[in-house]
Protein backbone atom coordinates (compact mmCIF):
# COMPACT_ATOMS: atom_id res chain seq x y z
CA UNK A 1 0.00 0.00 0.00
CA UNK A 2 2.85 2.37 0.82
CA UNK A 3 4.32 1.90 -2.68
CA UNK A 4 0.92 2.75 -4.15
CA UNK A 5 0.82 6.09 -2.32
CA UNK A 6 4.42 7.04 -3.16
CA UNK A 7 3.64 7.86 -6.79
CA UNK A 8 2.00 11.32 -7.09
CA UNK A 9 -0.21 10.38 -10.07
CA UNK A 10 -1.58 7.33 -8.25
CA UNK A 11 -2.20 9.41 -5.14
CA UNK A 12 -4.08 12.02 -7.18
CA UNK A 13 -6.15 9.28 -8.85
CA UNK A 14 -7.05 7.87 -5.43
CA UNK A 15 -8.09 11.33 -4.28
CA UNK A 16 -10.22 11.78 -7.39
CA UNK A 17 -11.88 8.39 -6.88
CA UNK A 18 -12.55 9.26 -3.25
CA UNK A 19 -14.09 12.55 -4.35
CA UNK A 20 -16.28 10.76 -6.86
CA UNK A 21 -17.61 8.41 -4.22
CA UNK A 22 -18.24 11.30 -1.85
CA UNK A 23 -20.33 13.22 -4.42
CA UNK A 24 -22.84 10.45 -5.00
CA UNK A 25 -25.33 11.58 -2.33
CA UNK A 26 -24.08 14.99 -1.24
CA UNK A 27 -26.67 17.36 0.21
CA UNK A 28 -26.39 21.11 -0.55
CA UNK A 29 -24.24 22.99 1.95
CA UNK A 30 -25.39 25.99 3.94
CA UNK A 31 -23.52 29.27 3.31
CA UNK A 32 -21.84 29.10 6.74
CA UNK A 33 -20.71 25.50 6.25
CA UNK A 34 -19.48 26.35 2.75
CA UNK A 35 -17.49 29.35 4.00
CA UNK A 36 -15.85 27.39 6.79
CA UNK A 37 -15.02 24.46 4.52
CA UNK A 38 -13.62 26.82 1.86
CA UNK A 39 -11.38 28.57 4.39
CA UNK A 40 -10.17 25.20 5.69
CA UNK A 41 -9.41 23.99 2.15
CA UNK A 42 -7.49 27.14 1.30
CA UNK A 43 -5.39 26.82 4.47
CA UNK A 44 -4.66 23.13 4.03
CA UNK A 45 -3.67 23.46 0.38
CA UNK A 46 -1.51 26.51 1.14
CA UNK A 47 0.30 24.39 3.74
CA UNK A 48 0.62 21.56 1.22
CA UNK A 49 2.14 23.92 -1.36
CA UNK A 50 4.47 25.35 1.27
CA UNK A 51 5.68 21.84 2.08
CA UNK A 52 6.95 21.62 -1.50
CA UNK A 53 9.47 24.42 -0.90
CA UNK A 54 11.96 21.98 0.63
CA UNK A 55 12.13 20.09 -2.67
CA UNK A 56 13.97 21.08 -5.82
CA UNK A 57 13.85 20.51 -9.55
CA UNK A 58 11.04 18.56 -11.15
CA UNK A 59 10.12 16.89 -7.85
CA UNK A 60 9.15 20.34 -6.56
CA UNK A 61 7.19 21.05 -9.76
CA UNK A 62 5.32 17.74 -9.37
CA UNK A 63 4.60 18.49 -5.71
CA UNK A 64 3.27 21.98 -6.54
CA UNK A 65 1.16 20.68 -9.43
CA UNK A 66 -0.26 17.94 -7.21
CA UNK A 67 -1.21 20.53 -4.59
CA UNK A 68 -2.76 22.80 -7.22
CA UNK A 69 -4.70 19.92 -8.74
CA UNK A 70 -6.01 18.81 -5.34
CA UNK A 71 -7.06 22.36 -4.54
CA UNK A 72 -8.91 22.80 -7.85
CA UNK A 73 -10.69 19.47 -7.48
CA UNK A 74 -11.56 20.10 -3.83
CA UNK A 75 -12.89 23.59 -4.57
CA UNK A 76 -14.96 22.30 -7.49
CA UNK A 77 -16.25 19.49 -5.27
CA UNK A 78 -17.14 21.97 -2.55
CA UNK A 79 -18.96 24.19 -5.05
CA UNK A 80 -20.89 21.17 -6.33
CA UNK A 81 -21.81 20.24 -2.75
CA UNK A 82 -22.95 23.81 -2.19
CA UNK A 83 -25.25 23.98 -5.20
CA UNK A 84 -25.92 20.37 -6.23
CA UNK A 85 -26.15 21.76 -9.77
CA UNK A 86 -25.37 19.69 -12.87
CA UNK A 87 -23.16 22.50 -14.21
CA UNK A 88 -21.05 22.34 -11.08
CA UNK A 89 -20.82 18.56 -11.47
CA UNK A 90 -19.48 19.12 -14.99
CA UNK A 91 -16.98 21.66 -13.64
CA UNK A 92 -15.90 19.11 -11.04
CA UNK A 93 -15.30 16.49 -13.73
CA UNK A 94 -13.37 19.06 -15.77
CA UNK A 95 -11.26 20.01 -12.76
CA UNK A 96 -10.43 16.35 -12.26
CA UNK A 97 -9.18 15.71 -15.76
CA UNK A 98 -7.37 19.07 -15.85
CA UNK A 99 -5.59 18.14 -12.60
CA UNK A 100 -4.62 14.74 -14.01
CA UNK A 101 -3.34 16.37 -17.20
CA UNK A 102 -1.34 19.03 -15.33
CA UNK A 103 0.29 16.40 -13.16
CA UNK A 104 0.98 14.13 -16.12
CA UNK A 105 2.76 17.02 -17.90
CA UNK A 106 5.03 17.54 -14.91
CA UNK A 107 5.76 13.81 -14.66
CA UNK A 108 6.63 13.82 -18.37
CA UNK A 109 9.17 16.61 -17.78
CA UNK A 110 11.43 14.07 -16.05
CA UNK A 111 11.85 12.29 -19.37
CA UNK A 112 13.62 13.39 -22.53
CA UNK A 113 13.54 12.81 -26.25
CA UNK A 114 11.01 10.42 -27.71
CA UNK A 115 9.98 9.09 -24.29
CA UNK A 116 8.93 12.62 -23.26
CA UNK A 117 7.06 13.15 -26.53
CA UNK A 118 5.25 9.83 -26.08
CA UNK A 119 4.41 10.66 -22.47
CA UNK A 120 2.99 14.06 -23.47
CA UNK A 121 0.99 12.50 -26.29
CA UNK A 122 -0.50 9.98 -23.88
CA UNK A 123 -1.35 12.73 -21.39
CA UNK A 124 -3.06 14.82 -24.07
CA UNK A 125 -4.91 11.78 -25.37
CA UNK A 126 -6.23 10.97 -21.89
CA UNK A 127 -7.35 14.57 -21.42
CA UNK A 128 -9.05 14.61 -24.84
CA UNK A 129 -10.78 11.28 -24.14
CA UNK A 130 -12.06 12.60 -20.82
CA UNK A 131 -13.42 15.73 -22.52
CA UNK A 132 -15.04 13.61 -25.23
CA UNK A 133 -16.64 11.35 -22.61
CA UNK A 134 -17.96 14.39 -20.76
CA UNK A 135 -19.41 15.82 -23.97
CA UNK A 136 -20.95 12.48 -24.90
CA UNK A 137 -22.53 12.07 -21.46
CA UNK A 138 -24.01 15.55 -21.71
CA UNK A 139 -25.45 14.79 -25.16
CA UNK A 140 -26.79 11.41 -24.01
CA UNK A 141 -28.51 13.07 -21.05
CA UNK A 142 -30.07 15.65 -23.37
CA UNK A 143 -31.20 12.93 -25.80
CA UNK A 144 -32.76 10.95 -22.93
CA UNK A 145 -34.62 14.02 -21.71
CA UNK A 146 -35.86 14.76 -25.24
CA UNK A 147 -36.96 11.16 -25.68
CA UNK A 148 -38.81 11.22 -22.37
CA UNK A 149 -40.62 14.40 -23.45
CA UNK A 150 -41.53 12.84 -26.80
CA UNK A 151 -42.85 9.70 -25.08
CA UNK A 152 -44.86 11.78 -22.63
CA UNK A 153 -46.36 13.81 -25.49
CA UNK A 154 -47.24 10.65 -27.45
CA UNK A 155 -48.87 9.09 -24.38
CA UNK A 156 -50.87 12.29 -23.83
CA UNK A 157 -52.16 12.18 -27.41
CA UNK A 158 -53.34 8.59 -26.88
CA UNK A 159 -55.05 9.51 -23.59
CA UNK A 160 -56.61 12.58 -25.18
CA UNK A 161 -57.98 10.48 -28.01
CA UNK A 162 -59.45 8.04 -25.46
CA UNK A 163 -61.06 10.93 -23.62
CA UNK A 164 -62.59 12.33 -26.81
CA UNK A 165 -64.87 9.26 -26.98
CA UNK A 166 -66.46 10.38 -23.69
CA UNK A 167 -68.85 13.28 -23.16
CA UNK A 168 -69.77 15.79 -20.47
CA UNK A 169 -68.21 15.59 -17.00
CA UNK A 170 -66.57 12.24 -17.81
CA UNK A 171 -64.66 13.81 -20.72
CA UNK A 172 -63.66 16.84 -18.63
CA UNK A 173 -62.47 14.63 -15.79
CA UNK A 174 -60.61 12.32 -18.20
CA UNK A 175 -58.84 15.27 -19.90
CA UNK A 176 -57.89 16.83 -16.56
CA UNK A 177 -56.43 13.52 -15.41
CA UNK A 178 -54.53 13.11 -18.70
CA UNK A 179 -53.10 16.67 -18.53
CA UNK A 180 -51.97 16.12 -14.95
CA UNK A 181 -50.53 12.68 -15.62
CA UNK A 182 -48.62 13.67 -18.76
CA UNK A 183 -47.57 17.18 -17.64
CA UNK A 184 -49.46 18.99 -20.41
- Count every beta strand, where a strand is a DSSP E run of 2 or more residues: 0
Count of DSSP-assigned helices: 7
What are the segments in which pLDDT stays under 50 over at least 5 consecutive residues?
1-5, 20-25
Radius of gyration using CA atoms only = 25 Å
Give your account of this protein's structure:
The chain is mostly helical. The chain has two domains: about 1-110; about 145-180. Helices cover about 85% and strands about 0% of the residues. Helix 2 (about 10-20) runs antiparallel to helix 5 (about 85-110). The longest helix has about 50 residues, at about 115-165. The radius of gyration is 25 Å and the shape is elongated. The termini are far apart. The model is unreliable at about 1-5 and about 20-25 (pLDDT under 50).
Short summary:
This protein folds into 2 domains: 2-110; 144-181. 85% of the residues lie in helices and 0% in strands.
Break the fold down into its secondary structure elements and pairings.
Blueprint: H1 2-6, H2 8-22, H3 31-50, H4 57-83, H5 86-108, H6 113-164, H7 168-181
Helix pairs in contact: 2-4, 2-5, 3-4, 4-5, 5-6, 6-7
List keywords for this structure.
184 residues, mainly alpha, 2 domains, disordered N terminus
Amino acid sequence: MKALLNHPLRLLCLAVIGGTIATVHAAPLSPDTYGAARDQLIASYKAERDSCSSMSGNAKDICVETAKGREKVAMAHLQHQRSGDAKDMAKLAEARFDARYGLAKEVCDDQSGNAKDLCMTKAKAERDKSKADMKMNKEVAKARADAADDKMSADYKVASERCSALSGNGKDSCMATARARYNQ
